[in-house]
Write a structure and sequence with these properties.
heterodimer; A: 129 residues; mainly alpha; 4 helices; 0% strand; B: 8-stranded parallel barrel
Chain lengths: 129, 309
């Protein structure tokens, strides 16, 4: 399969189901099969403080908050335990260089695991006291 | 030199009071100076805001520098809405250059909450990532890995809204921010006392060293409460609370009593080390609240000596 064809196939499958935005670094499995890139603020580490009383989005009042949905689906969908356990992971900033590329290819090549050198690998804070 | 905020929170059991520094929309230092004089006797530090409610004002860093020059300690707020990761790191380094140590990092209201909703929203980092980046600077590297000498010495804070859905997840999200590097949380104003209680209990149980500073807002009456409910993202004011103020013969006094009750309630909760005050009344009730909470005014000369230390 040519590298050009793969993103097209991936988008054709993932767009109708998850409204995939082709960030190229898919984290769906760890976010209750709910795409965080569909959050108007593209938040990958949980909901902002603007969620409405009815659980809808601050920016799009007619839409359920992506993270309210993710949190519900993490529990309600029959997901592997390991996927659920990754829900609280500290996800690194989006690598904008991967936009439009196939996350499947990036998964296989582990390109989607690359993070900037200054990003804390273990997500444990230094004792900045 | 050590941040007073850090010193009091980490090395004592004293209460801490922070305030939202008013936004500045005018050239010259006059308004900064008058506001510093008003707030300095009562507050350990003040938040210099970053385009709050998505309205442009004098920048977070410029006001932080100005406030600090006047002898009051700033907490530089950074929202993720307006700048990408390069600009946010540059602002953090610039703040460090001027000796600003306290940060309060947040996602930020969306551009649609402001008066220029046609703006591009950025959100290149989210709040947890911004906290982690500030912590990286403290470890002596930019996000890229490039070295910083000497490293920054930020006292990193964050925010959380205990009253916004998904309620059950809010403590977990606070812990994520804590493990990314946050040492204190300024909590959004919460008109649901039970939700605030549950959040503080949960957070204090999970991380006893995380310092909580719930926000109290001073408002004039029912009209402002309705505005908060209708216009401020993530704020829900129960109808019973609005009604209580609305039906009172003296709305001004009723709104003050509401704030005082909220303050006393919040200060008694686990993990709570003090309060963050936002004053939208601009009258004498700010001082009245401080006095009613048993706070005594600090001697300003002493304060200047402390900040020059």
């Amino acid at each position: 399969m040519t590298p050009k064809l793969l993103p097209i196939i991936e988008h054709a499958i993932k767009k109708p189901i998850w409204d995939c935005r082709m960030c190229g670094q898919c984290v769906l499995h760890s976010t209750g099969m709910t795409c965080p890139m569909t959050c108007p603020k593209t938040l990958r580490n949980g909901p902002c403080g603007g969620v409405r009383e009815n659980g809808n989005c601050e920016v799009k009042p007619e839409m359920q908050c992506v993270w309210v949905k993710a949190y519900e689906r993490k529990e309600s969908l029959p997901l592997p335990k390991a996927w659920r356990e990754h829900f609280d992971d500290l996800r690194p900033p989006v690598d904008m260089q991967l936009k439009g590329t196939s996350s499947w290819a990036n998964l296989l090549t582990k390109r989607d695991q690359q993070v900037p050198k200054g990003w804390k690998a273990d997500a444990t804070a230094s004792n900045s006291k | 030199m050590m941040s007073r905020l850090r010193d009091v929170l980490e090395n004592s059991n004293d209460r801490v009071f922070t305030a939202e520094f008013p936004t500045i929309d005018g050239a010259g230092m006059a308004r900064v100076i008058s506001q510093v004089q008003r707030l300095m006797p009562w507050f350990d530090a003040v938040n210099t805001t970053d385009n709050p409610a998505a309205h442009a004002h004098a920048s977070n860093i410029s006001v932080a520098i100005a406030v600090k020059a006047q002898g009051l300690e700033p907490i530089m707020q950074i929202a993720c809405r307006d700048k990408n990761r390069l600009a946010i790191q540059a602002d953090m380094m610039g703040a460090a250059l001027h000796g600003i140590e306290n940060l309060s990092l947040m996602t930020g209201d969306d551009v649609t909450a402001g008066d220029e909703p046609e703006s591009r929203r950025v959100f290149d980092l989210d709040s947890a990532q911004a906290i982690s980046v500030a912590d990286s600077l403290n470890r002596g590297v930019y996000l890229s890995g490039r070295t910083i000498k000497p490293p920054t010495n930020f006292y990193i804070g964050a925010v959380e809204n205990a009253a916004a859905p998904p309620l059950e997840y809010r403590v977990q999200r606070a812990l994520k921010k804590q493990s990314a590097g946050a040492r204190y949380l300024q909590l959004q104003i919460c008109y649901h006392s039970v939700r605030l209680e549950e959040f503080c209990q949960g957070a204090a149980k999970a991380v006893p060293t995380l310092h909580l500073l719930p926000t109290i807002v001073l408002l004039k009456g029912a009209r402002q409460l309705k505005f908060m409910n209708d216009k401020v993202p993530g704020i829900d004011v129960p109808a019973s609370i609005i009604e209580r103020v609305e039906k009172s013969s003296d709305q001004n006094e009723a709104a003050y009593q509401l704030a005082l009750e909220q303050a006393q309630h919040a200060l008694a909760l686990p993990g709570v080390r003090g309060l963050h005050i936002a004053d939208f009344r601009h009258d004498d009730t700010l001082v009245r609240l401080m006095k009613d909470l048993g706070r005594t005014a600090r001697n300003i000369n002493q304060t200047s000596a402390l900040s020059a230390r």
